Each structure stands twice: as C-alpha cells, then as structure tokens.
C-alpha cells in the first residue's frame, strides 16, 4: 500500500516477538508449506495428517457441508476472530451461498481499506516521529536523491508494511503459505509491469541509469534465490538470514553509491541529471496525520486565543472529518471518506500519533491519556486473537482487567501532571506506543485477510497461489499504483519509476526471509517449501522474465522510456495473467 513511512530494518526485526504470538510456529511433524495446492479431479486429496482436504467440501452434498467443515481438522482456521468457513457453510443456508460470498467480498475490500488507513495515517507518521527522535534525517519526499537510507529502509517499510505482515501471517500456516508466495511474486509482476508501464504511458521520461540497474540486479538476485529455494523444496536458517542479510547489503550499496555520486557532483566530475521539480508541500491539500477538524489554518485562528477545555480538545481530536476539506472535495471522495470514517474513528481512539511537524507535536492531553488505557488493551486483545487477554490469572482475575487497572492509574497520573498547552518531555514515548498499536491493527487485519482469502479459495476451488497473485497482490499494490501514477502526473516520473523497483525488493527479501524465520524452531531450523503446482513455476518465471526484459530494453533505449515501453509491459502482464488462469483451470498442464 502506498504511503510514506519510516523504519529501519531493526524495527522490522523487533516485530518478531509481537508477531510470534500469531505466527503458529511450526514444530516437528507439521506438513510442509503447501504452495499452490490444487485439487486434481478424481484424486483423493489428503492434507497429510490433517485428514481430508477442506476443498473437498464442495464435492459433498449441500446438506453435509456443515458437518464436513466442523469435523475436518483442515477446515479449522488458524488465528483470527471470525470463523469464515463455519459462517458460509453452517450459518448461511446453501441457497444463500451467493449472498455469503458477496458479503465476504465486501468485507475483503473493507479489510484492504483498514490496512491502507492504518499504514498511511497512523503507522507511518509514528515511524516518522521515531526516526526524528533517533536523530535520523527526515526528508522522505525525494528519497532517491537526498536521503537514500529513508528510501530503502524507512520509506520501504512504510510502503511495504501490509505486504510484509500479510506474508508473515500467510507463512504461519502451512495451508496458506501459497498466498505468501503468490502475493510476493504476483505483486512483483504487477508493479514492475502495470505500474511501471503506466508511469511511462502517463509521462515519458529519462530513467536514472545507475539506480535502475542497481535495483534490477538486486531484485533479479532475490528472485533467483527464491527460485532456488522452491527448487530444493526447503529454506534453512542460514538462507532465511541470507535474505535479510542481502537486504542489509542492498541498503549499504544504496548509501555508498549515493555518497560517491554526491562527492563526484561536488567535484564537478558528474553533470547534473535531468531536472525534476521540487516535491510540493501544499499543507492545504495534505490531510494531517490523525486528522481532525481542530487544527485551524492561520486565517482561521481567532485573534485572541483562549484556552480550550479538555472536553473540546477531546471531541475535536476524535473527529475524523475536516469540514473545510469536505466542502472542497468531489462526491466520490466524500463517498470513500464515509466508508473510511468508522475505521479512522476507532483508530483515533486506540492509536496515538506524534507529529514532529506540528508545534505541539500533536499533543492532545485528554485523548493521549485515554490512549494510555486503550492502546495496551488493544495490544493484549489482538495478540494471539485475544487468547492472552482473556487468560485468567490464578483462574480469578483476567489479564485484560489488570491492563485496564494499570492503564487507568497511569492515565490519571499523566493527566494531573501535564497541561493542555505543552506536551510533556516524555511525549516521544507515545510514538512508540502508537507504532506498536498500529502494528497490531495491521497484523490483525492481515490475519483476517488471509483467512477470508483461504475461505474464498475453498468456495471457488481455487489454489492459494492464484488468490495470492490476484486478489492479495492487487489489494496490497493498489496504494502503490495510485501514489506512483499520481507522482508521475505531477512531474516526478523518475522518482515513481525508482519506487517501482526499489520498494518491492524490501517486500520479497524481508517478507520471505522474516516470514520463514519466524516459523523455525531450535529443533527444526528448516522450513519445507514444496510447490506442487505448475502455477508457482510460471509465476516465478514470469517475474524473472519481466525483470530481464526491463534490464535489456531500458538500456537499449538509452533509458528514454516512452509509450511503446509502457504498452509492452502492460501487454506482457495481460498475457501472464491469461496463462496463469489457464494453468489454474488446467487448460494448460503437464502431461
């Protein structure tokens, strides 16, 4: 999802402890991760020790659907708050199956909205505040030219957070690992063809030669490593760490190359590249993080400001709507905003946001005191789908009750020792609290997303791989698509094109590396990846071929990219999609 954000690789690894609660660590004896399992006609599909494959439910009589789902271990979803399989096959009668599928599809779209809003409005601003407090450079706009470290670590994680969380959740269950591979490869094909081609169609430009070649080479190496892992059918601890190590080496290479280029520019050895305008900072068009209608522009501020009451501060801070912006926007923006408002309201209640660009750092005393209570409660109730929060201490007192009690005491102390006008010295700690709370929101939404995609796959008899390369990949890439194309239309096609190849390197290296690393134990430091479908190899080959095409054709055009290049990439993606779907439905198959 496209959104500006900041975080170092260490920040990604620090999530391991949080995600481990939902990761479903794979002990000895668990079957290998099933990548793209497709039930063959006339073949009794068995999921190893799980009994009959859950996809067999549609082959049963409709009166037996509910009994089959509830009795088959393979139909039990790991994690999540809702049992989608039980809902569609037991709650809804068979004749209302189309209605159930429609509701699930709408809920799937809303989950993507939740992921996007959480990453854009809450996750990324808090990461920005963390980088500021850690005394790191803070200019994420022109990351490819000014501050490369932000572009390849902080901005990459802000953009790729939903992708990485989805991959980690999918890898946590052997039955949904195909979603992770399909999404990582499918998003790579989509971004490097449709998005990159769309940029060239919108605004022909001259690509930055050295950054392009560097990113494509690293990405091809990452794809080759993943291809070899799939070929040998396993990934070891060293290989998983190698994925993360390769990304660290990529970060080091970007920083070193940029430093050398700057030095040569200063010495006059390198002529300046093609000009691009400055990134606009129109505060009127950029909705502030954790939006509310209480932040007035200069012309709307009263001449004689008076102290606001805590109740007024709380009500304005909890309003997700800027009425002045509402009046200026078209009808479709207002319609989309209506759907987003419930999500934003709940997030405003549970996730604090620290904004270093504001004078008061977005300090809202009554709301921040409320966050001391709601944010830890959110974390404990979403960790392991609420298992830890509902645990009874000595069988008497629930953990969530203890969290409420401690949070209330800390909130009361904070309220009586602070003022509405000036943030406390420890206000930066709210950025870390907001980062953790928004990360738990993303993780919870990603878990529901993976479960509902698996349910749709069982209903329509589709493999996890095809669901990953279509629905999950499109949903996670839609934000990148709109942001990159908008950037190109505004006159920054080189920056948008660099983001196409630079950002997805993070997704594949950290998504696969961290996702598999969290499934390893001391007794079994190996995760088996056994693709039993031709579609997995077509997907990997299509991504590699698209990268080779760009690696050869872009220099052949002297890095002058126009509409012909864009049309070729989009036609390539359409051809790939046709082949993938024909393979899924066994029109194309091996004898």
| Order of secondary-structure elements | HHEHHHHHEHEHHHHHEEHHHHEHEH
Task: Identify the overall geometry.
Answer: globular
Structural class: mainly alpha
Mean pLDDT: 80
Strand content: under 5%
Write the CATH fold name of the domain at 107-138 and 150-262 and 433-590. Answer: A middle domain of Talin 1
Count of beta strands: 7
For the record, give the distance between the C-alpha atoms at the N and C termini, rounded to a whole number.
Answer: 39 Å
Poorly predicted ranges: 1-34, 36-49, 137-151, 278-300
Return the CATH class of the domain at 107-138 and 150-262 and 433-590.
Mainly Alpha
Largest sheet: 3 strands, mixed
In helices, the fraction of residues equals 55-70%
**CATH homologous superfamily title of the domain at 107-138 and 150-262 and 433-590:** NCX, central ion-binding region
The radius of gyration computed from the alpha-carbon positions, rounded to a whole number of angstroms, is: 25 Å
Strand order of the largest sheet: 1-6-3
Question: How many distinct helices?
Answer: 19
Assign the CATH architecture of the domain at 107-138 and 150-262 and 433-590: Up-down Bundle
Membrane topology: Multi-pass membrane protein
Domain Sodium/calcium exchanger membrane region: 105-255, 431-581
Subcellular location: Mitochondrion inner membrane
GO molecular function: calcium:sodium antiporter activity
């Amino acid at each position: 999802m496209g959104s500006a954000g900041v975080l170092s690789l260490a920040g990604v690894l620090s999530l391991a402890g949080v995600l481990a609660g939902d990761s479903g660590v794979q002990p000895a004896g668990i079957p290998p991760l099933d990548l793209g399992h497709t039930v063959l006609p006339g073949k009794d599909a068995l999921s190893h020790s799980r009994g009959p494959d859950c996809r067999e439910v549609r082959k049963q009589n409709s009166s037996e659907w509910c009994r089959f789902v509830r009795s088959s271990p393979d139909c039990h979803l790991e994690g999540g708050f809702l049992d989608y399989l039980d809902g569609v096959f037991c709650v809804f009668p068979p004749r209302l199956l189309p209605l159930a599928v429609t509701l699930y599809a709408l809920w799937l779209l809303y989950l993507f909205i939740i992921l996007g809003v959480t990453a854009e409005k809450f996750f990324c601003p808090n990461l920005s505040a963390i980088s500021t407090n850690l005394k790191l450079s803070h200019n994420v706009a022109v990351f490819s030219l000014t501050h490369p470290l932000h572009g390849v670590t902080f901005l990459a994680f802000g953009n790729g957070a939903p992708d990485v969380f989805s991959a980690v959740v999918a890898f946590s269950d052997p039955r949904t690992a195909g979603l992770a591979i399909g999404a990582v490869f499918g998003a790579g094909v989509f971004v490097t063809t449709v998005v990159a081609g769309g940029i060239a169609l919108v605004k022909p430009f001259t690509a930055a030669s050295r950054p392009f070649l560097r990113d494509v080479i690293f990405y091809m190496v990452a794809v080759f490593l993943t291809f070899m892992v799939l070929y040998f059918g396993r990934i070891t601890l060293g290989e998983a760490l190698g994925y993360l190590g390769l990304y660290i080496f990529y970060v080091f290479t970007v920083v070193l190359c940029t430093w050398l280029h700057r030095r040569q520019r200063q010495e006059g050895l390198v002529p300046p590249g093609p000009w691009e305008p400055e990134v606009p900072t129109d505060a009127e068009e950029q909705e502030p993080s954790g939006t509310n209608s209480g932040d007035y522009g200069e012309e709307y501020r009263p001449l004689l400001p008076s102290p606001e009451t805590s109740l007024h501060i709380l009500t304005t801070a909890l309003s997700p709507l800027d009425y002045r912006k509402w009046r200026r926007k078209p009808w479709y923006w207002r319609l989309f905003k209506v759907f987003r408002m419930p999500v934003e309201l709940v997030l405003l209640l549970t996730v604090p946001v620290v904004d270093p660009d504001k004078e008061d750092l977005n300090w809202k005393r009554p709301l921040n005191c409320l966050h001391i209570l709601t944010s830890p409660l959110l974390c404990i109730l979403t960790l392991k789908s609420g298992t830890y929060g509902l645990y009874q201490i000595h069988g008497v007192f629930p953990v969530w009750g203890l969290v409420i009690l401690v949070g209330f005491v800390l909130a009361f102390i904070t309220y009586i020792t602070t003022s509405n006008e000036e943030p406390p010295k420890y206000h930066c700690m709210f950025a870390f609290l907001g980062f953790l709370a928004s990360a738990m929101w993303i993780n919870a939404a990603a878990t529901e997303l993976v479960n509902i995609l698996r349910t749709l796959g069982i209903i329509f008899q589709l493999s996890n791989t095809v669901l990953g390369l279509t629905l999950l990949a499109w949903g996670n890439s839609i934000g990148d698509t709109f942001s990159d194309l908008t950037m190109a239309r505004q006159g920054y096609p080189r920056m948008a094109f660099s983001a196409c190849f630079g950002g997805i390197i993070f997704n594949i290296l950290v998504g696969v590396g961290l996702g598999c690393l969290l499934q390893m134990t001391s007794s079994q430091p190996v995760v088996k990846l056994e693709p039993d479908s031709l579609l997995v190899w077509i997907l990997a080959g299509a991504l590699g071929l698209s990268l080779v095409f760009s690696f050869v054709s872009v220099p052949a055009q002297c890095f002058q990219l126009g509409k012909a290049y864009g049309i070729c990439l989009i036609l390539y993606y359409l051809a790939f999609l046709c082949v993938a779907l024909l393979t899924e439905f066994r029109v194309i198959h091996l004898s």
